[in-house]
Structure formats: C-alpha cells, structure tokens
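Office hours follow-up: a student asked to see two folded examples consecutively, so here they are.
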Amino acid sequence: MASHHYALDLTWQGNRGTGTSGYRDYGRDVLLRAAGKPDLAGSADPTFRGDATRWNPEELLLAALAQCHLLSYLHSAVNHGVVVTSYDDSPVGTMAQVGQGGHFTEVVLRPRVTVADVAMVATAREIHGEASTNCFIAASVNFPVRHEPVIEVAPA
C-alpha cells in the first residue's frame, strides 16, 4: 500500500481587533496556501456569517468530489478505449444542519461528457460507476455521491 501525504498552511484573517470576544465580533476569513500554488481565499458560508466572495469549506468539498471524479473518469475512459473530447460538471450538495453542527446528506455530480464516437456512448455511461469506486475523495466520505451523467457525441 502506498501512502501519500498532503500539506498546506491555513491562516485565519478574521481578527477585527477583539478576537473572538463575541459571535458577531470576528470574521470567518482564512487564507489557504500550498507550495507552488496560488493562494485560496476562504471563509464560512454566508449563512454562517461568512464572506460570499470567498470559497467556503462546503464548496471546496463539492469541488474536490467533482474534480476527483473527473480525473478518475478520464483514467477509466482511457482504459476502456473511450475518447472523451469534453467534460464539464455542475455538482450540487445537500447539507443538513443539526444544532450548531451538521453533515452532508448527498452530493449529485451532473457530468456532461462528449465522446468522439456514438459507439462509445454506452461504455462512457457505464464507467461513471468505476470512476466513483476509484475516486479517493468519494471513498472517504460517509454520504452518497450520485451521478446523473449526460453523454453526447462530438459533431463529425
């Protein structure tokens, strides 16, 4: 078994002068940094007093699931002889708040995949299951990650 390690730096930027002296007295802004990558501005969801112009953890989890599925899917496509010429997704996630905490109840990935030939359509649809099984992030969460793919054929 191979081990892979990941690291980043997170800096809270929300001290407005009195720290966490009260729930409304501090900002939720954070800065995420990783070597060799652009900085990522984060915050809480606006519902939780965050900055809507910054990425929130819930969006980042959704992005991680969608990107991981894409990368796993492209690998499966190569292995099965499916030539993908275009792929985009508009995933949605549902989170239930319970008291001050909560959890995701479901994520639905909605990939739109274009393949090079009509003969590839059935396999292109099938390999979403394989990609899901092989996605490290989907295998790490305790809620369903469903797929509603649309497969199209590139114009000749």
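And the second, which I mentioned at the end of office hours:
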Amino acid sequence: MTQTFPLNPVLQPEDSAFIDRTLCGDQKAFSQLMQRYLPAVYNYLYRMTQNHEISEEIAQEAFVKAYQNLKNFDRQRPFKPWILRIASNAAISQLRKQSKLVSLNAMEEAGTWTETEHQTAEDLVVQLERKLSTEEVLTALQTLDDKYRQALLLRYQQDLSYEAVAETLGVPLNTVRTWIKRGTEKLKQAVKEMAS
C-alpha cells in the first residue's frame, strides 16, 4: 500500500497551541511538545550515531535550541521537520568531532533495485531483510556518507515525504531525490559486500 503525503504540510493545530502557550511563558506547553516529538528525534539520532548516550545528549541539545529559537519558527511549516533539522545538524557536528564513521565510496551499480517515490519504508526493509538481519542492515547503513544516511533515515524511518526531507536537511528537493537514489544504491552495495 502506497502512502501519500501532502505536498505542503502545515503546522498541526495542537503544535500551534503548544507553541503559542510556550511563547507566552508556559514551559509545560513546551514539555508537551517535546514529549510529542522526542521519540522520533531520539530514534533518528540513534540511527545516526548508534549510541544511546550520545543520542540522548544531542536530543536534549536539539530541544534546548528549539526552545531558544521558537520565536523564529516559521508557523507556515510543520514542527517535526524543523526539530529534526536541528537534531540532524547537531548530530553531524558530533559525528565530525568523533570521526569514527568510515565512508564507503562503492561504485554505483546499474540494476533493477532502485527506490521510487512511491516505494514505502516496508518495501525497502523487506528487500534488505531478505539478505540481512535488521542489525546487519543498520551496520551497512553506518558505512554510508552522512548525507545519504540522513536522507534515507528521514525518508524511511521517519516516513517523511521528499519535500519534508528537503526542508529538514535544508537542501533542494532534487538533491534529496539524488541522495536517496544514490544512498539506496550504495546501501545495496554495502549489503552485498556484507552478504558475500
């Protein structure tokens, strides 16, 4: 079953109310907003870092930054891509500091296994799990360049539309399409190398 996403997602009414109350000095309202999005932020960060403590630290940092910059938030946009972008930037900074991840520059391979805009996260997971366990897929994912890994995680783990991924990463839509296509190809190559 193909999921459809709105072309121009907007701020959820509940989020808007929490933001209004926060800006009026109600810190409990921001806590509610944080409770709503912390699981998604943490899961995304854990997939990026593969470390619980670092993920928790970066998530806290992201929400502090969001709180400090809430008055600058564009209310015409949804909150989730904005908070994920803050978390994503913090994660990249942290990963660069650690520089423990190895980038794999495998040659792109022409083949029939390509991602389309209508492919669901389940399709990708099913294809990959035919060859490897979930843990092995995550290990293969860690070999990708940050930009590819981020795009794939936002698209498939967070179920964001291409437009929302572009907004979250702060790059043009066509760049996201390219990163997801190349990322899936490189992930496929990494999976093949691990399986052999």
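Two things to take away from it. Residues 27-49 form the longest helix (23 residues). The radius of gyration is 17 Å.
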